[in-house]
Fold this sequence. Notes:
The protein is mainly alpha-helical. The chain has helices at about 10-40, 45-75, 85-105, 110-130, 140-155, 160-195. Helix 1 (about 10-40) packs antiparallel against helix 2 (about 45-75), helix 1 (about 10-40) packs across helix 4 and helix 2 (about 45-75) packs antiparallel against helix 3.
Amino acid sequence: xxxxxxxxxxxxxxxxxxxxxxxxxxxxxxxxxxxxxxxxxxxxxxxxxxxxxxxxxxxxxxxxxxxxxxxxxxxxxxxxxxxxxxxxxxxxxxxxxxxxxxxxxxxxxxxxxxxxxxxxxxxxxxxxxxxxxxxxxxxxxxxxxxxxxxxxxxxxxxxxxxxxxxxxxxxxxxxxxxxxxxxxxxxxxxxxxxxxxx
Length: 198
């Protein structure tokens, strides 16, 4: 059983969360593109319905994409196993889901093609930007990179940390001596007053 420090693959829930996060960004881009397209292209339905199509399509397609990619992730032991199927299968599923969802909501072939095209453009941009066909690092390699970065950061900021700790110790010492001096002054004053009273 792996120890707490040992690297592991993300669970399906984490993979879906990651997909939904990137899906939200792509959805915003697709919404902006749809709004721009609505200036030149006459839509059969209102823009609000197209926006709803895009949001639903992205939610469903990102969840399905994570589920489709999961066997490949487990087989390769990498969060990004690479290969053409890893890049193309979720892309194709997203395309089909977006077209079907858009057609179901709008009943318009024209608007469904627009929504599917926008989703295809955003998803293709992600594939080429992240180079999803290339294999990513293994969990052990990711952990090694993280440990190396952590060590480099610790070394780089060691002087600053030491200086901050020194200042904190000095301030704590000053507060202690000021408090002790106040207490002694109060004690001396009480003693003086009790001597005067007697």
